[in-house]
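Lecture 7 notes: from sequence to structure.

We start with a single chain of 78 residues. Read the sequence below before looking at the structure.
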Amino acid sequence: MEEMILAILAEACEDESVKDHLDIDLFESGLMDSLAFAELVFGLEDKLGVIISPSEIERDKMNTPRKILELVKERAGS
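Now the structure, written as tokens:
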């Protein structure tokens, strides 16, 4: 599951480096903006069935690949 989450994230950010740098701040580094975030949320729901409403999650809870992995795994129940 982790590989799939990172693949969805890399696609949304249009940068494979997010797979190797799990603690990089995606917003501060410019890898993610609001459009990329929307693509990420859609991809997680479409490919994994994990629903994350952008209004329920604060940006600092999903600003690194590691935090995204943890949140998605928690929501997926694995």
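The chain has a mean pLDDT of 93. Keep this in mind for problem set 3.
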